[in-house]
Design goal:
Elements: E1 11-15, H1 19-30, E2 46-48, E3 54-58, H2 64-69, E4 75-79, H3 80-86, E5 91-109, H4 114-119, E6 124-128, H5 131-141, E7 145-149, H6 156-160, E8 165-170, H7 174-178, E9 181-197, H8 198-203, H9 205-220
Parallel strand pairs: 1-3, 1-4, 6-7, 6-8
Antiparallel strand pairs: 2-3, 4-9, 5-8, 5-9
Helix pairs in contact: 1-9
The structure holds phosphoribosyl ATP (PRT) and magnesium ion.
Phosphoribosyl ATP binds next to α1, α3, β5, β8 and α7.
Length: about 220
């Protein structure tokens, strides 16, 4: 049996299932906090923790900033990619947790001459989920692009002729290799941040500060 959350309002931490949840667990453990349900085995979306004043809610990775911005959660963990696409307004970002590391890159088919396409000033078609990051990147380079918004499986776009290039996250590089794509530019390094609702920080300063400090010690260790 999970201990009930106390009356009043426990602090709510928004996490996404998968690598963010998996990489945040050890940080919570280092702070002496255990999550009392396993999201891979239970269908619960609200998970109690070993601390009665803290609960975890599970949301889509790209919804974490929305929950925190509007106060559906007091805190959250989100990738820099997600934060840049969402916009960082209303969110306090006290910590880079250094987890779920990867990079945002441009990739093309092995047989596509990206350097020549860019040099000739031709318009290139770029498919991506990260339209904001991509449009800023190419604008900075002075390259004309037609952006095609996708929600997943970006790697398929150059293989089917949908696009010349993709902007996507790369970690081991195995997905690119398996699909005969090559990384031609690294746009930025990505890791996940702790984000905090600014109003919650004012109203519940002590417990939130204590949690931020605990995360900071765990991330530094
Ligand atoms: O899956 P869903 O649509 O719900 O959301 P999501 O894909 O945003 O969530 P999730 O859990 O997959 O990713 C959460 C966060 O983890 C991202 O926002 C990134 O900050 C971070 N992260 C770290 C990654 C990766 N590494 C990563 N490798 N997110 C995605 N990938 C994907 C990448 O898009 C590509 O398809 O993995 C593939 C490449 O991996 P390699 O190892 O083959 O290079
Ligand atoms: Mg994913």
């Amino acid at each position: 049996m999970n201990p009930p959350n106390p009356p009043g309002r426990p602090l709510t931490l928004a996490l996404s299932k998968g690598r963010i949840f998996d990489d945040t667990l050890p940080l919570l453990a280092a702070a002496g906090i255990e999550v009392l349900d396993d999201p891979e085995r239970s269908r619960k979306l609200i998970l109690a923790t070993s601390r009665a004043d803290l609960r975890v809610v599970l949301v889509r990775a790209s919804d974490v900033p929305t929950y925190v911005q509007y106060g559906g959660a007091d805190l959250g963990v989100a990738g820099k990619d997600v934060l840049l696409e969402h916009g960082e307004q209303g969110l306090y970002q006290p910590l880079d947790l250094g987890i779920a590391r990867c990079r945002m890159s441009v990739a093309v088919r092995e047989d596509f001459d990206y350097a020549a396409a860019v040099r000739q000033g031709s318009r290139i078609r770029v498919a991506t989920k990260y339209t904001r990051i991509a449009s800023e990147h190419f604008a900075d380079k002075g390259v004309h692009v037609d952006l095609i918004k996708l929600y997943g499986s970006m790697e398929l776009a150059p293989l089917t002729g949908l696009a010349d290039a993709i902007v996507d996250l790369v970690s081991t590089g195995k997905t690119l290799v398996a699909n005969h794509l090559v990384e031609v530019e690294r746009i930025m390094d990505i890791s996940s941040r702790l984000i905090v609702n600014q109003a919650a920080l004012k109203l519940q300063r002590e417990p939130i500060r204590a949690l931020i400090d605990a995360f900071a010690r765990a991330a530094a260790a």
